[in-house]
Amino acid sequence: MSNSTVFLDLDGPVIPDYRTRRYGRLLDNYTHWTRFNSNSVDNLMFLLDKYQAKIVTNSTHNSLGIDYLVELFNANGLGKYLLDNTQFSIDNLLTRGLAVDKYVKDNNIQKYAIFDDDLAGYDRSNSRENLIHTNGISSEDIFLASKLLKKQSLKTKENL
Question: What distance in Å separates the CA atoms of residue 126 and residue 106, rounded to the nearest whole number?
Fold first, then answer.
């Protein structure tokens, strides 16, 4: 596994203003829009390359399955960075924050950052300190994420 992990919500961080704009085309057999914001992708790729990080999606898009996510990330030039997805989906009761907590614990993740535009799912999460609240990943967001990925977390599997 990679040294660093980026937990990524899609609507907001890489599809900013998704409620008012439509990006791209529909992928075959899917109902979500597909084109990520190019500035967000460029900024994210810089971070991923610098820290040899991988992406774990933490998004409502998870409910569409891993095949959809692979196709979506490949279509946006991020396929080589996609590692996995959390158990968060619109079909279960696990909040985004608790889904990250579970993934971190189950996979012994030490260094990670979270990009999300929704704070609500993190109110009871141990991962809240690693959350970067964003609507479009900016260079400032990358600076904050870099600080998180540089530090060695004191958290261990036992104390999460």
Answer: 14
Joined tokens for residue 94? 């696990």
- pLDDT at residue 145 in the model: 97
User: Which stretch of 15-29, 45-59, 87-101 has the lowest confidence by average pLDDT?
Assistant: 15-29
Which whole number is the average pLDDT over 146-151? 91
Dihedral, CA atoms, 108, 112, 117, 120, nearest 10 degrees? 40
Rg (CA), the chain: 15
Using CA atoms, how far apart are residues 87 and 95, in angstroms rounded to an integer?
9
Sketch the domain layout of the chain as residue ranges: 4-152
CATH for 4-152, options being 3.90.930.12, 3.30.2000.30, 3.40.50.1000, 3.60.20.40: 3.40.50.1000
139-150 helix and 38-51 helix, angle to the nearest 10 degrees: 20
Q: Provide the residue type at 142 as one letter.
A: I
Instruction: Give tens-digit pLDDT for 57-74.
Output: 999 888 888 998 999 999
3-state secondary structure of 74: helix
Helix (H, G, I), strand (E, B) or coil at 156: coil
Q: In terms of C-beta density within 10 A (0-12 exposed, 13-18 middle, 19 or more buried), how is residue 69 classed?
A: buried
